[in-house]
Amino acid sequence: MEVFLTSTVTVALAEIGDKTQLLSLLLAARFHNKIALILGVLVATIINHGLSAWFGDWLSGNFAIEYLPWVVNISFIVVGLWLLIPDKDEAVNHKYDRYGAFLVAFVFFFIAEIGDKTQIATVLLGAQYQSVLWVTIGTTVGMLIANVPVIYAGNALLKRIPLNKVRIIAASVFVLLGLYGLTTI
Asked: Percentages helix, strand, coil for the chain, rounded to the nearest 5?
C-alpha cells in the first residue's frame, strides 16, 4: 500500500502545472468528448509509466547496488528542484483533430510524457520500490487525479488554484523524500 500511495501522491503533486496538465486543458477546450480524452490520457499513462516503472526496476537490479540509494535520493531532490521551474504552454496542431479525442489525447499525452518530470519520477519510484505493477497503478492514478478535474473544470479550476504555491509544496515533498532517504542510507 505504501508503494501505491507514495506513487499516487508523488505524481499527482508533480503533475500540477506540468505541460501534460496544460495539454489536458488545451484538449478539453477543443474536444467535447471528455470520456474519450480521459481514456486517451489513461491508456497513454499506463503504457508510458508501465515502461518507466519497469525501467526503474531494471535499473535497480542491474546498477551497482551500493550506489543505487544515493542515485535515487539525489534524483528525488533534483526533480523537486526541477518542479520549481514552471512548464510552458505548448500549442497543439489542429490538423490532428480529425482523428478524434481519444487518439489525439493518447498520442499527444504519450509523447509529452517522454522525458517529463512525472516520467522521471516514475522511473525513480520503480527503482526505489521495485514494484512495476503498484508503481504503474499509483502513478497512473496520480496522473488522473491531476488531469481529470482539468479536463472537466478547465480554466475555472486553474484560476482558483494557486499554482505557484502547489508547485512549491510538490517540490518540497520531492526534496524531503530525497533528504529523508539520504538520512536512512
From this structure: 80, 0, 20
| 132 within 8 A of 47, measured Cβ to Cβ | no
DSSP state of 178: H
Residue 177 and residue 45 in contact, taking contact as beta carbons nearer than 8 Å = no
Three-class secondary structure of residue 83 per DSSP: coil
Alpha-carbon distance of 76 to 177, in angstroms, equals 7
Interatomic CA distance for residues 163 and 135, integer angstroms:
25
Question: 39 vs 33, 61, 101, CA distance in Å?
Answer: 10, 33, 9
Residues 64-98 have pLDDT tens digits of: 667 767 877 887 788 778 777 765 555 555 666 67
From residue 71, alpha-carbon distances to 43, 182, 184 in Å are 30, 10, 14
Rounded CA-CA distance 110/50 in Å is 12
Q: What is the pTM of this model?
A: 0.75
Residue 67 DSSP SS3: coil
